[in-house]
Amino acid sequence: MRVGVLTGGGDCPGLNAVIRAIVRKGVQEYGYDFTGFRDGWRGPLEGDTVRLDIPAVRGTLPRGGTILGSSRTNPLKVENGIRRIKDNLAKLDVQALVAIGGEDTLGVAARLSDEYGVPCVGVPKTIDNDLSATDYTFGFDTAVNIATEAIDRLHTTAESHMRVLVVEVMGRHAGWIALHSGLAGGANVILIPEQRFDVDQVCAWVTSRFRASYAPIVVVAEGAMPKDGDMVLKDGSLDSFGHVRLSGVGEWLAKEIESRTGKEARTTVLGHVQRGGTPSAFDRWLATRFGLHAIDCVRDGDFGTMVALRGTDIVRVPLAEATAKLKTVDPKLYAEIGVFFG
Ligand code: F6P
């Protein structure tokens, strides 16, 4: 049996650990052959492949990024996209596909499996941790550690200059990175996409922090929105899944804070630093377990499923269900940490 593997969407630390586990178990235990597809769905769409065997995955466990490359190509938006994928899989004798991705990549895998009869298994990845069927996605823990270290460092420079430091982190629709890193880093304000914020309230927290003779750290998710405004966009461009590019809310907020409080403010945008580099030990562990279970789904012919973490168990859930709804921050959880604001 020949199994295809692809990684789609924004990359994240741990992708190579999944690929390595799939290949190691697939070759050693089940005698499978593998074909790597380059750059997400672009690979099967254009028949662009890369050798994938045990030597190809050696030494990749601690490496960030993905040895297969990634893209946000949406084959459902390409003329004859499904037909081209099916023809290329048949030509390459690939009988099953493991798609490692977030909501968009796995949404395509769900439709290919359920509507077009392409046998797919999904593995959830995203630093945003916003897939509802799994307790955690790999990549999130690494991103939170990077953001927390940045916040720790920003505390000392903020205090030397008695300035406000606004830290913008990733998180388009879900504030998980902001919430976890903000709490771990002792931020004084945490703003998430799920709850619109009041700039006057933010300024009141900032002022009260200065009153206590400390410099405030404000953590804001890139998708957070003021009460009477919209998401701040980088530019008007859309990717092929229809997502706008975000970033800029941190800069905007720092200016508002300066003009309303008279205190100096600076912004740090962490951006893709959160997605790069070596995965944390937890992400290596989770990614490896996802890979081992994904290849078991292939062996069992359990297609149209995604592997997911529930507690400490890896379970299988229908791909269509897993991609139907995003996992966002519960208002009760957000309220719980409000005691640290200001
Ligand atoms: O989906 C993960 C993510 O990192 C989001 O948090 C962010 O908005 C987006 O990807 C950035 O995408 P790109 O790298 O394509 O600009």
Automatic annotation (TrEMBL):
KW Nucleus (keyword) present: no
Name under which the protein is recorded: Pyrophosphate--fructose 6-phosphate 1-phosphotransferase
Residues binding substrate: 126-128, 163, 170-172, 222, 266, 272-275
Residues that hold diphosphate according to the record: 10
Pathway assignment: Carbohydrate degradation; glycolysis; D-glyceraldehyde 3-phosphate and glycerone phosphate from D-glucose: step 3/4
UniProt KW keywords: Cytoplasm, Glycolysis, Kinase, Magnesium, Metal-binding, Transferase
Family affiliation: Belongs to the phosphofructokinase type A (PFKA) family. Mixed-substrate PFK group III subfamily.
Activity regulation description: Non-allosteric.
Site positions per UniProt: Important for catalytic activity: 125
Molecular function GO terms recorded: 6-phosphofructokinase activity; AMP binding; ATP binding; diphosphate-fructose-6-phosphate 1-phosphotransferase activity; fructose-6-phosphate binding; identical protein binding; metal ion binding; monosaccharide binding
Top class in the EC scheme: transferase
Any Gene Ontology CC annotation: 6-phosphofructokinase complex
Catalysis performed (reactions): beta-D-fructose 6-phosphate + diphosphate = beta-D-fructose 1,6-bisphosphate + phosphate + H(+)
PANTHER family to which the protein is assigned, alphabetical: ATP-DEPENDENT 6-PHOSPHOFRUCTOKINASE 3 (PTHR13697:SF52), PHOSPHOFRUCTOKINASE (PTHR13697)
InterPro entries from the UniProt entry: ATP_PFK, ATP_PFK_prok-type, Phosphofructokinase_CS, Phosphofructokinase_dom, Phosphofructokinase_III, PKF_sf
EC numbers: 2.7.1.90
List of residues binding Mg(2+): 103
